[in-house]
Write a structure and sequence with these properties.
- Helix content is 38%, strand content 17%.
- The chain contains eight helices and six strands.
- It has helices at 14-18, 34-48, 61-74, 99-105, 107-114, 120-123, 130-147, 160-171, and strands spanning 3-9, 54-57, 80-82, 153-158, 184-190, 193-201.
- It has a six-stranded mixed β-sheet with strand order 3-2-4-1-5-6.
- Strand 5 and strand 6 form a beta hairpin.
- It starts with a strand and ends in a 17-residue tail after the last strand.
Length: 218
Amino acid sequence: MDKRIIFVRHGKTQWNVTGRLQGAHGDSPLIDTPEVQADLKALAAYLKLANLSAVYSSPLNRAYATAKLLSKNICTQLQVVTDPGLLEVSFGSFEGLKKETLLNDYPTEFALLSSRIDDPRLQQLGIESFSDAQTRFCKTINKLAKAMDDNQTILVVSHGAISQLGIQGLTNNRYLGGLSNLSLSQIVEKNGHFIIEKYNETAFLTHPVIQQKNTSIK
């Protein structure tokens, strides 16, 4: 029987707007505008159709706050459970730097970062190993899936880079691109294998985003 996991990238933050790299140690607040509020309500209405059994979130406030707002609009009985395995990739000394600065001052390192290629030059900057980050995320999702009953659907609210890496690892598809804020992706587990059903969908939003990429992707 099928088990479905829906992934949502957190809402837009101040650093997203200014193009600053935001990882596990940078956590700027969510933007609170009528447009963002409308998009959150539209996403919540869409998620109501999924009959969610549980909501999980990264402990970082931008993801947790997004999960709480969605949960409040979906069903007041849905409690948000945080799990450190869902944390964003740590971008070390690059956190808080603007994309333009990274392109100008660290072109080689930024190219490696954008391609999610592990390299000693990135580790020297305190950037988390992408393979290690992918492993911890996939291990967490497998743990959550194992605890699910057949035909259940859960929501996971996390971050752009780690969700991209995680879904790539879970579905053995390394060509998946970046994720937009409040985008929805969905995988289904069938006979121990994860299959992509949706990826980076935003058409249900009041203000859908076209081709938005993470700051860390060129």
